[in-house]
Design goal:
The chain is an alpha/beta fold. It has one domain: Aldolase class I (TIM Barrel, Alpha-Beta Barrel), CATH 3.20.20.70. The chain has 12 helices and 8 strands. Strands 1-2-3-4-5-6-7-8 form an 8-stranded parallel β-barrel, surrounded by 7 helices. The longest helix is centred in the C-terminal third of the chain and has 24 residues.
Length: 259
């Protein structure tokens, strides 16, 4: 199981005070030394954390492959084509969201998506689609001729939090009170089965499978046990733990859980 470390939240801390520190670029050597396999960053349209200069410097200086998450916005795709990261993961974006709330809608009319994929392929950039785990989505991803899919694991993470008490916010608390422990366990098992079956189906179609969103030190083991998922992209929980342990130790602890 490969680990991509998302370093966006280093930039979140910097942007909170609008100063120069901490610099996400300083994390590159630490992430590599800790044994991670990839750097992941998200260049959002609103530039709430990673800035254009961050993306340029990280892609230029990183000795690990860089996975750049971004929306389909033409302005962002122009930047991506110029920077040419190892991989682009296309994700949905809404200005009002705190974090990505679901997978990319790739069904139905997708002229812009197809044009974006073709353009990225012309620049020899590997492409991944961040999608909800459904049969229709993996079949469409195959038809779109991309190399990777990344399953959005937010539903799994939310149910896990409700079941085991790592609620985090009032919305989850209220929802958990409405459901019995047995019902939550059934929901969790169902979500894990879905991820297991669909990752196998995707692999048989020739797609490579990653997963991410909401994964942490408590819930990652069950996902890591799915052999047909070959990569996890994890950020917030690693950066949060690094405040107390240091970044290298936080990554090492996550790597242990993945193996």
């Amino acid at each position: 199981m490969k680990l991509g470390v998302n370093i966006d939240h280093i930039a979140v801390l910097r942007e909170a005070r609008m100063i120069a520190d901490p610099n996400p670029l300083d994390a590159l050597s630490i992430v590599k030394r800790a044994g991670a396999d990839q750097i992941t960053i998200h260049l959002r349209e609103d530039r709430r954390h990673i800035q254009d200069i961050d993306a340029l410097n990280i892609i230029y200086h990183s000795s690990l492959p860089v996975n750049l998450e971004c929306a389909l916005a033409p302005e962002i795709i122009d930047i991506v084509c110029e920077l040419r990261p190892h991989r682009v993961t296309l994700v949905p974006e809404k200005r009002e969201e705190v974090t990505t709330e679901g997978g990319l809608n790739i069904l139905g009319e997708n002229t812009q998506l197809r044009a974006t994929i073709e353009r990225l392929q012309e620049h020899e950039i590997e492409i991944s689609l961040f999608i909800d785990p459904t049969h229709e989505n993996i079949e469409m991803a195959k038809a779109l001729n991309v190399e990777w899919i990344e399953f959005h694991t937010g539903k799994y993470a939310n149910v896990y939090a409700m079941l085991y008490g790592n609620l985090g916010n009032t919305h989850h608390t209220i929802k958990a009170l409405e459901l019995s422990r047995k019902a939550l366990k059934e929901m969790l098992d169902e979500e894990l089965t879905t991820l297991r079956v669909l990752s196998c189906d995707a692999m048989e179609l020739g797609l490579r499978v990653a997963a991410g969103h909401g994964l942490n030190y408590q819930n990652v083991k069950e996902i890591a046990d799915i052999e047909t998922i070959e990569e996890l992209n994890i950020g917030q929980s690693i950066i949060a733990r690094s405040i107390f342990t240091g970044l290298e130790q936080a990554i090492l602890e996550m790597k242990i859980l993945l193996h």
